[in-house]
Amino acid sequence: MKRVGQAMAIGLVMCGMAWAADPSVLKPRVPADQIEEAKSWENPVLSTPENVEIGKNIFHGKAFCVTCHGKDGKGLGNIPGLRGKLPRNFTDNTWQAARTDGELFWILKNGSPGTDMASFVPLVLTEEEAWHVLLYVRSFGNP
Ligand code: HEC
Fold it and tell me: Is the CB of 115 under 6 A from ligand 1?
């Protein structure tokens, strides 16, 4: 019986990894004691075509987001050496709706703990650049 339980658990984990609509991507990444504050942060940069373009240049340029998240924003899905969690599929509207801008900004400041999503602010990006790149991340969604 124990064996069967183990096999089922492994099976479930494997399904979770292979299945694009993995519900675990919707679980908040910001720790519970910081999420209320993070949700209160709003993007001060207007989503104009010019500002999205600035974000796009950062995504494809100096911040190297594209190496993990892909040109199409879907996450490349098979990057050697990643410690488990795959890069997010930004074209998933359910995920887009599940996150506030402030939560995404928290991730750019702190990274997603335990994954290969590192912190970019302030070492790589200024806060203003981070807000621009998030406009570009949002542009993959289809409102
Ligand atoms: C080394 C690979 C790598 C690079 C480079 C990278 N990411 Fe990520 N990113 C990831 C992984 C892996 C995850 C999934 C983390 C998780 O599931 O918690 C992720 C998740 C995210 C998320 C979703 C977090 C959430 O709340 O669901 C955002 C937004 C994001 N990345 C933005 C960016 C931006 C913007 C850049 C460039 C400044 C970038 N990433 C660069 C690997 C990367």
Answer: yes
State which amino acid sits at residue 23.
P
Of 46, 68, 49, the C-alpha closest to 59 is: 68
The rounded average pLDDT for each run of 10 residues, N- to C-terminus, in the chain (143 residues) is: 53 44 86 98 98 98 92 77 78 95 98 93 98 98 76
What is the whole-number distance in angstroms between the Cα of residue 118 and the centre of ligand 1? Answer: 7
DSSP 77: S
How far, in Å, from the CA of 12 to the mean position of ligand 1? 24
The full set of domains in the chain, from first to last, is 27-139 (1.10.760.10)
